[in-house]
Amino acid sequence: MAEGPDDTVFEDCQFLTGSPQRFAVLAQLRERPARPTDLCDTVDATRTTIQRILAGCSERQWVVKRDGEYRLTVTGQRVLDQYTALMSEVERARAVGPLAVHLGSMAADLPAELLDPDCLTTSSEQNPLAAIDRFTDWLHEVDGDVRAISPIVTSVFNDVAVDLLETGTHIEFIIDHGVLERSASDFSDALERGVEHENIDTYVHDTPLDIGLALDRSRVCLAAYDDRNNVRAIAESDAKAVYNWAETVFDRYRARSQPLESVLSVQENKQ
């Protein structure tokens, strides 16, 4: 059983997080030493509340009073810095949640750049197609050859593939047996193209896929799917570290996959 923080430390954390005014007071003192009256002008709180906050911070030795002014101690500065970082991380977690909750095992070594809210497109009740629409646009914008992993098959993706192949783009595509079965029943033309077209190499992964990934010459797009195989969020990046990571992931999945022709041949021999 994991041990929690010491009771006193926990109480100190509760004190700091108990109201936004406490953070505001410390943030103001980080800018410059101040008297209680000065803080009343910049913090939305009564003088009595300001005095209580200063007393609580003084008790914890986060602030010290000198010559009538309160100033942060070095430990108060560190506490404020860490709390600011925590709030930023909580804000990030809220924004990136729609991606993070559907990452599965891929989350273990995910580059931090893909957790930047600015690189995300997420679907919502108000805009349920936002992520899939942006993913489709990303595919239409590819530069150079494409490598992709997909746990689903749709007419939209098949149409994009046709457009790319017509421009001479080479595609390496990893699917799973579920996608293969649905392609055989619902998208036979696309399946035939995956076997016969000289510019597409299709592989079938040995276990079900739960994540989408696409790379072109310099960009990466990561797609997170829910239990019904709806795209819930995508993350885009052109950072070199992300690209190197995506190449490693793709190569790892391809190493556990068989060429589509081989899989179909085995299936035919069993019939």
From TrEMBL:
User: Residue limits of the HVO-A0261-like N-terminal domain?
Assistant: 11-94
Under Gene3D superfamilies, the record lists: Winged helix-like DNA-binding domain superfamily/Winged helix DNA-binding domain
Where does the Methanogenesis regulatory protein FilR1 middle domain start and stop, copy by copy? 128-256
InterPro entries membership: FilR1_middle_dom (IPR013561), HVO_A0261-like_N (IPR057527), WH-like_DNA-bd_sf (IPR036388), WH_DNA-bd_sf (IPR036390)
Superkingdom assignment = Archaea
Name by which UniProt lists this protein:
MarR family transcriptional regulator
